[in-house]
Each structure stands twice: as structure tokens, then as C-alpha cells.
Amino acid sequence: MTSLAVALLVLAAGCASPRPAADDNAADDNAGDANADAEAPAETSPAETSPASLSERRPLPNAVVSPEPFRRAVERGTRTTDGRPGSDYWVNRPTYDLDVELMPEGPDGEPRLEGRARIQYQNNSPDTLGILVLELAQNHHKQGVQRNEGAEITGGVEISRLAVNGSELSADGQSRPTYTVSDTRLIVAPARPIMPGATTSLDVAYHFTVPEAGISDRMGYSGSQLYGETNLFYIAYFYPVMSVYDDVRFREDEQGWMTDRYLGRAEYYSDHGDYDLSITAPAEWFVQSTGTLENPDDVLRAEVRRRRRNAHQSDEPVMVLETGERATPTDADGTLTWEYRADDVRDVAFSVMRGGDWNWEAARTPVGDRSDGDGQTTDYTNINTFWREQAPLWSEVTRYQQHAISFFSEFTGLDYPWPHMSAVEGMNIMPSGMEFPMMTLMGGYNDESANALYNVTAHELSHMWIPMIASTNERRHAWMDEGMTTFNEAAARKDFFPDNGTQPHIQDQERYIGAVLAGVEAPILRWSDYHHSPASYGLASYPKPAAMLHALRGILGEETFREAYRGFYDSWAYKHPLPYDLFNAFEAAHGEDLDWFWDSFFEETWALDHALQTVQNTGDGVRVTVADEGNAAMPVDLTVTLANGDTVRRRIPVDPWLDGQRTVQRTIQTDAPAERVEIDAQEYYPDTDRNDNLWTR
After folding, report:
1. Rg of the chain taking only CA atoms, in angstroms
2. Are 235 and 137 a contacting pair, CB within 8 Å?
3. Residue 628 is inside which H or E element, if any?
């Protein structure tokens, strides 16, 4: 999701420190090219220490010690110290059969969803489960529920029946078996515990009033500026979701279950499963959902089916439906039921759109060779775009989706696995964007540039890889999916707009630096709902971790970084990685300890500020003195441009800073005098003041 960061990013972009003017004559063949296939600069002899460093000591980073629950998981064999799942890793698996009906006008005149969820839950853990924990996210809209932001009050979820293994449970709390609802948590105590390897079934009948802008603007309904009446329902968080029973337990009271209530700011955490979804809606409305439509002949007009089929075989966008046309059979009245099937997803969402008010464009896009992996076959996924005439820039979103899905399939090394990707214009519900497996809801972006609409499209589609494939805990570690997605988005933007002169990774750096200078720093590793403000949450979740991934690319070098980054996605596909798995994966690829980096930028809020103190040409080279005016340690990558036009690159390793020094001196052997010396010419590192990073003769 992007909306929570918008205000922060705008503020921070305006606060970033100025950078020295670019020198068009600088002889640096990779400067500023974040995707250049280059390794880190070579190190030379140990650095000399200037006398000043003896009296000016610096704070030193601590060793990053993984929490005891994580270490216990390593001992049990479910995690490892090299960033991969252990040989005894397991995840529990739910299977959902959901039958829902959306009534735009329910019995009380308000929009209503009635549902029945039949869930099979397989206990793959070695533990005996005495309770089951589920989430009822719509209770965020219940009177008296704890929240960290305002919310429309709808009454939340009403459960009319709940059964386990066919036996109905009571909610009176006076007898067992029973269940209880606490805020957004549904806790079920079955008659018999679920043994390791066993499967249990739940059957829940429920209903709720659909909020107009629900779950922090992540779902709801809206009309259009042209038609006035409601013509879109975007339905998410609409069914009881099995909470994650985890192999790593950070709180003793959890007993393995993820029990954090939904408060509004931080998002979600769930297991992958298989879904059968039946959606009943008024006959003049049409439905797009996570999964594959199983009964198109029953719900779409023959002409629409023909166009849809042709579009999904076309590399160029094809209009499937235009404003004024009906999607469903003209002789249908009452209601229609749409049948969808989705495999290996951690959630489902769907849109219900009134016929006649919508454009529907579709195409296909290549995603690699996911069928047999021999590299000889090109596989495709279907792309769908739905928008109203009030959002004219959306006519380009199909093309944006095609690029993003294909790009991320290559960039992450994981081919997009699902049958389609669909974007729905959600003006008046969602100002920015929100992701679900195979589905995204995004604003109209009429007041923004076309680039901005591409950017949010790329951001939301990158979420298909994290947290939708690599299923992170968004509620506690939002930075993992949002930071990595922001990093991925920047790479996609550079690829899509190669000639517009911007460096998206540098923009993330500047947003982070601006926030630092504005005094709204926040530690990345703080749990998501524990940030003191939306601004600190936004900083720690979006631009700061993205900027740190870019810095890590500079530290490790492009090839090593790419190996570790792709390896992380591959290792944790359809599993639950934690921050320490990511840290371990990078350290394993690098072959060196990176605690100084994780502590400085992830646990602490230290800032980086290197400066060229003195530069002196000598008889056989150039003597450079670098001062460290911040608290965060970082290698010093020097680019020296010589009078004869040659360029020399050298790295001062991080060790002098870790020894407590504040200045370090290096003599670089050269064949000609230096004309220009620059720290971090490729701008990998988030230096808070670059004005003192450049020397020219």
C-alpha cells in the first residue's frame, strides 16, 4: 500500500539536502547508474589514521543478536543462520470455500455482505493446537474496538452460526466448546484439540454492513463524478481468515498464534491456501476477483467472452468492454453467481462493477518459463484494467501492468505465478493504491502526472512478490514488504522511463535524508503499529529501507547483491521470512558480518555524513583525508579523476570507523595529478550532506 506514505514523501522530498552540481566531463563510466553491472571498488593498503582521530571518538554499533525465539527456531531446524528455511520448516495450510452475496442495498438500506465460510485447516506443525485463532478485520468498524486511527462505525461482523467438525459452538462463554470475539480476533475452542498432521473444519455464517471507505481506505464503495450513483464495490477483508500459527514466537502469550489485533495502520499476515469463491451480485453488475473465473458462459455476454478471449491472446491492449455496454447477458435479471478458483494465495479480494459505467481493457504479458523451467517456452499471464471515464489517464494502465509484471518476473528471478493481474480504478475509495493477490485498487491520479500513475501501478504490482509470494508479517515488519517494494518500484521506473533523467533510487534517498533533517527519523525494526506517528511509520516502512537496500547494493556490489536478493525470494516463496532471515541471506552471500550496517540503520537512527577534509597531490599520488561527521559507519568509495583523463576507484573499508576513528587518511598511487576527487560518485549511500563530498583542483 502507498497512501500512508504520501504526505511524508512529499514533505521529505522538499527537505532533502542539496547535491553538488553534476560535472558532465567527469570520467566515471558507471556514475549514477544503479543498474550497472559493477562490483564494489577494490580496497588497497590499510588506511593511515590522522592525529585528529585519536581525540575524537565515535559511538560504535552493537552486534545485532537475533532474538531468542529466532535462535530457538534455528535450534529446532525450522530456520537457519544462512537466511534459508531449515530442513524442518513447516507452514500450516488453510483451504477456503467461500459463498458470499453482495447486496448494494440490504434490508436496512445499507450495503450488506452475507457470507458463509467453510474452512479446512491442516496442522502441519509438531504441536497440538488447543485453540484456533482467526481474524475478523471488519470488526475494525465496530463500536468500542481499539484503533490507531478513525473509522466509520458499521457494527462489524455478526456471526449467526459457527461449527467445528460439524458441531455447532456457543458464544455464551458458559460452556465448552465455545468461541469468543475480542476486537478483530475470533478465538475458537473446539471440543478436541487438533493433533499434528490432522485437519479440522470450520463453518461460519456471518454478515456485515459494507463501509463506504473501509479498513483504512483499503476497500469500500463509490460512485463516479459522471454518474453519481454507486457503481463500484471493492470488497476485501470480507471473510474469517485463519491467523498464522508460526514457528517463531516472539511473545510467550502467543503460543505460536499471531494474535496482534488489527488497529488500522499496519496491514496483514496470513498463510497461503486454496480458495473456491462464489460471489452473488445483481445481474446488471459484473465481477472481477482473485483467481480464475470458472463459469464465464453463465455470467458474460457471448461478445464480451469473445473479446476477452482475444485480448488474453494479444500482446497489444484490446477493449473488452466500453462505457455504455453491459457485460452480463441482457436477459439475465435478479442475481448472477460468479465462480472463482484461486490456488496458492494468501488472500482474495473482488470488485463488483455496475454494467454500462466501465471500460475494460485486457492483454497478455510474458512472465518467463514457469511451466517446465527449461527456458525454451514463454509463458504469459492475463492483464485486465477496469476504469471509469472520470479517470482518463487509466487508458495507459494496461501497458503499465504489462511492463511491471514482466519486469518484476525477471528482476526478482521469480516468474509471476498466477493466471491474471487486474487493476481497478477506485477513485473516492483509495487515493493511492492497495494490493491483493492478482488484484489492485488504485486512485484516479487525475491531478498527477502520467509518471505518478505508472509509479503506483509498479508499486502495487511489486507487492505480488512480497508479501503475496514471500509472505512477510506486515503487521509487525511493514518495512520488509513496503521497503523492498519501494526498492523494486524504483528499478521498474528507471527501466520504463530510461530517458527522463531521473534516478528513482536517489529520490528515495532524498526522501529519507529529508526526513532525517526534518527530525522525523524512526528505527526500521520498530514493530509497525508502535511508531509514534504516521510520518515515522511511513519513513521507516517506505523510503528508508529502500534507500538502505540501495546502499547495500553499493557495499556488496551489483552481482553479489543480485544473487542474495533473488535467492531470498526463491528461498521464501510461499513461506514466512523474518527480518533476520533477510539479514542472514545478505551476510551469507557477502561472506562477511554486516552487523555494523543493520545496527546503524535498522536498529538505531544514526545518520551518515562523510566529508573530504583535505586532498593533496604528492609526487607519486594523491593523499586524501576523509572525516566522518555522522554516527553511521559506511565504506568510503573514492573516485579520483586524473589530469590525463584516467579514473581510479578505491574503497576505504569500514574498519577505521568501527575502531572509533573520526578521520582517516589514504594515499592513492596515481600516474598523474588528481583533478577531481569524489566520495560515492555513484550515489549508493545516503549521505546527509553531499556538499563536502567533492573536491576539484
Report:
1. 27
2. no
3. strand 621-628
Instruction: Sketch out the chain's domains with CATH numbers.
Output: 39-61+607-696 (2.60.40), 91-271 (2.60.40), 480-603 (1.10.390.10)
Question: Which residue spans within 82-174 are E strands per DSSP?
Answer: 93-103, 112-122, 132-135, 158-164, 167-168
Round to whole Å and give the CA distance between 138 and 349: 14
| pLDDT confidence of residue 9 | 38
- For residue 332, the SS3 value is coil
Amino acid (1-letter code) at residue 135: E
Q: Tell whether the torsion through CA atoms of 502, 503, 508 and 512 is positive or negative.
A: negative
Residue 375's region, left for phi above 0, alpha for psi from -120 to 50, else beta, is: left
Length of the chain: 697
pLDDT tier at 26 (50, 70, 90 boundaries)? very low
C-beta of residue 64 within 8 angstroms of C-beta of residue 598: yes
User: Is residue 508 helix, strand or coil?
Assistant: helix
**Residue 180 backbone phi and psi in degrees, to 5:** -140, 150
Q: What is the pLDDT of residues 501-512, one digit of tens each?
A: 778 999 999 999
**C-beta separation of 458 from 440 below 8 A:** no
Q: What single DSSP character describes residue 599?
A: I
CA–CA distance, 454 with 449 (Å, rounded to integer): 9
- List the beta bridge partners of residue 482: none
C-alpha cell of residue 275 = 480458495
- 104-118, 294-308, 442-456, 544-558: range with lowest mean pLDDT: 442-456
Tell me how far apart the alpha carbons of residues 218 and 214 are, in angstroms, rounded to a whole number: 6
Residues 648-692: tens digit of each pLDDT: 999 999 999 999 999 999 999 999 999 999 999 999 999 999 999
In Å, what is the CA distance from 94 to each residue of 167, 200, 287, 448, 471?
A: 19, 10, 24, 41, 14
Among residues 287, 290, 244, the alpha carbon closest in space to that of 269 is found at 244
Positive or negative: CA dihedral 48, 53, 57, 59: negative
Q: Which residue has the higher pLDDT, 216 or 36?
A: 216
> Of 600, 595, 601, 588, whose CA–CA distance to 546 is shortest?
601
